[in-house]
Amino acid sequence: MSDIEYKHLLVKARDAKRGGIEAWSVQSTGEKVAVALVLNRADWLASMGYTLAEAIERTGMSWLALVPIAERELRDED
Fold this sequence. Notes:
Blueprint: H1 3-25, H2 29-38, H3 42-47, H4 52-59, H5 61-64, H6 67-77
Helix pairs in contact: 1-2, 2-4, 2-6
């Protein structure tokens, strides 16, 4: 995964963290699933009809590897 892709995920997660479900809801399906994992929002995944296991599968291994990194960076910003 490139640095550009990581920065993209981080921006989308940051937007959703600040703007809530309204900011999250305008993202693509793939972005929404990955961002919900970053933000630990199982309720957002459920609203899309995804279980955690399905979300992990949908995200894929390369993006999934970035989830904890992005989560830590957002947490450190607080």
